[in-house]
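Students often ask why we bother encoding 3D structure as a string. The short answer is that it lets us treat folding as translation between two languages. Here is a chain of 293 residues written in the first language.
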Amino acid sequence: MITGSGFVLVDKAGGWTSHDVVARTRRILGMRRIGHAGTLDPMATGLLVLGIGRATRLLRFVTDLPKEYEATARFGVATDSLDADGEVTGRVPMSIDREDLAGVMDRFRGEIFQTPPMVSAVKVGGRRLHELARRGEEVERPARRVRVDRLDLEGFAAGPFPEVRLRVVGGSGLYVRVLADDLARALGGRAHLSSLRRVASGSLRVEEAWTVEQLACLGEEGRLAEAVLEPAAALSHLPSVTVDDDTAARVRNGRRLPSPPDLDGHVRVTADGRLLAVYRARDDRLVPEVVLA
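And here it is in the second language, the structure alphabet:
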């Protein structure tokens, strides 16, 4: 059992839902108040950022961070879910080479529009798409604007059904499986993801994460505190304002503060290296958004 609040970085295994990871971690940590920043599909592996205790209120500042993925796609083979967990709906060989694919990739960098897949948590008409898909229904989905910050072709195995390795960095709401299929459509075919691994959310990396099995071992050894990342460190992408004891008391009471020059957006307010709150810079004032202390 663990007390307090913070973040736990989990390296999710394939076959687990994000909900499965949260439920198992609740049992290991002996804590009910746990949430995550960004769902991973069951097939996907890699970084799942968990907020525990009061730090669940900070998850929104992590959810929107750019996320980095390593993906492998099979071109020429379509599935109903756009990934390897779905049923194959078509197999049409694609006579393309590496240069053909590289030639269309620039269309998918920057701001693009994507149509969410039916097997997703997006709501249309108040109902989640994956719930409709399980009932065999398909509905019109409005395309959404998403951002692709980086799209690299890291491997290409030629053949009638080429295997393509991609590195993708993008903003919140980006579906890598839709991106892979859209790349194939631009070349006259279809594709699905055979593997997907999230390796980073902002500066938080999967190399720093723990598997569920490792967390369980830490729990048996009474060392769970080693897995908890302090909120100030997890939100290191935000600028920081350090305050003295008198000002810290004002922060704990949710009082506004004068803003240092040149600050914009969200700001960490810390004392003695500990996160007290996240404020937003507004004009010449700092206004509280989440107070932990």
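Translate back mentally: Residues 5 and 134 are 37 Å apart (CA to CA). Keep this in mind for the problem set.
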